[in-house]
Design brief:
Elements (H helix, E strand, L loop, with lengths): L20 E3 L10 H10 L10 H10 L7 E4 L1 H12 L5 E5 L4 H8 L4 E5 L19 E5 L11 H5 L7 E5 L22 E6 L12 E5 L1 H10 L7 H10 L2 H26 L5 E2 L7 E5 L3 H10 L2 E5 L10 E5 L3 H19 L17
Parallel strand pairs: 1-11, 3-4, 3-5, 5-6, 6-7
Antiparallel strand pairs: 2-8, 7-8, 9-10, 10-12, 11-12
Bound molecules: pyridoxal-5'-phosphate.
Pyridoxal-5'-phosphate binds next to helix 3.
């Protein structure tokens, strides 16, 4: 198994270019909803003051049945991984792959060794908790996992907690799973648990940068000590507060239910393409697929106006994998048409450059 770190800095946004239909980045909408834009616009009046995170933390705490001391707001979920890497001194860090690469990248950048626990496609990328080394004092796992779209049972994750271990669960996409059935966001009694959440995907706020960590106040204090001062801006705090309100949570839940229908549509269309194998049992708003020559096919899709996410930069996957975002059916139809065309062209025998029945022209 390769332990190359070359691809860790690659993310779906690098696959985008003007004019391409975006199936590469897992942000749900093209822009924040109008009510949220109004909230953001109103926050501009307060830009002269330094950010005050009290109300936003309170709203997030209430949303997850936690106390305010159990909430740390961050500049996107990505910042939380950097803070963890800088604040903690793990002797044996284990990252469960394939998953979002930033946790490993942040740990390595902070000088920590990282052991990769690579899940197997034959197991549907599901985790057997017994595979996690008992002496691991930091374990990072995504739920649902990007890019495999696997939703690990809460019981599996609970089995990973133990004294002396920080258990980090990246729930960046959990609000896209209807009912959030396997979430540990509100779990207060699990030793060393830190849950990371993002607001950038569901609410189209990737450019604003807002997320948070939930967990033991002692661990969060350690993170806070290494966090840059005023890391989360006033508009980002306004978004955190607004997106944690019950009406917003309900809106996210409805969107999650629609996404399930859209994913079913995508899966049914992909299943009609014999070259494509769908990995595991997708539960997130993206699907991981296996198809021979995916690296070539991805480039051919670009020439047909469609961007998908390459799979080979995720530890544990190779050149025959692609990740595809769930989109409404009318957009999915474009993807499927382009993919069918590419697969047909790919299967055709290479164009002959010389045909025996053609007269040869001798050079003069
Ligand atoms: C699984 C996962 N976690 C965290 C993040 C980072 O999210 P944010 O935009 O909140 O930093 C991403 C971004 O793609 C992701 O895929």
């Amino acid at each position: 198994m390769s332990t190359s770190t070359d691809g860790l800095a690659h993310h779906g946004d690098a696959e985008l270019a003007a004019g391409l239909l975006d199936f590469a980045v897992n942000v749900r909408r093209a822009e924040p909803p109008p009510w949220l834009r109004t909230v953001l616009a109103a926050s501009l009046d307060r830009l002269a003051s330094y950010p005050d995170d009290h109300d936003a933390r309170g709203a997030v705490a209430e949303r997850h049945d936690r106390t305010i001391a159990e909430v740390l707001l961050t500049a996107g979920a990505a910042e939380a991984f950097v803070l963890l890497a800088q604040a903690l001194r793990p002797r044996h860090a284990v990252v469960v792959h394939p998953q979002f690469t930033e946790p490993e990248a942040a740990l390595r950048a902070a000088g920590h060794e990282v052991e990769r626990l690579v899940l197997d496609v034959a197991d549907g990328f599901r985790l057997d908790p017994a595979r996690v080394p008992v002496d691991a004092d930091l374990v990072v796992i995504g739920n649902p996992t990007n890019p495999t779209s696997v939703l690990h049972p809460a019981a599996t994750l609970r089995a990973l907690a133990r004294p002396g271990r920080t258990l980090v669960i990246d729930e960046a996409f959990m609000d896209a799973v209807p009912g959030e059935p396997e979430s540990l966001a509100a779990e207060r009694d699990l030793t060393g648990l830190v849950v990371i959440r993002s607001l950038t995907k569901t609410w189209a706020l990737a450019g604003l940068r807002i997320g948070y960590a939930l967990g033991d106040p002692g661990v969060l204090d350690q993170l806070r000590r290494v966090q840059p001062l005023w890391a989360v801006s006033t508009p980002a705090l306004a978004a955190a507060r607004a997106c944690s309100a019950p009406t917003a949570v309900l809106e996210a839940a409805r969107a999650a239910s629609s996404a399930v229908l859209h994913r079913d549509y995508l899966l049914a269309a992909l299943e009609r393409l014999p070259a494509v194998t769908i990995a595991g049992m997708p539960r997130a708003p993206f699907v991981l697929i296996h198809l021979a020559g995916a690296d070539r096919i991805r480039l051919a899709l670009r020439t047909r106006g469609v961007a998908v996410r390459r799979g080979d930069t995720f530890p544990g996957l190779g050149r025959d994998w692609l990740r595809v975002a769930v989109r409404p059916p009318e957009l999915t139809d474009h993807l499927i048409t382009a993919l069918s065309d590419v697969l047909t062209a790919d299967a055709a025998p290479p164009a002959t450059r010389f045909h025996p029945s053609q007269p040869t022209i001798e050079p003069t």
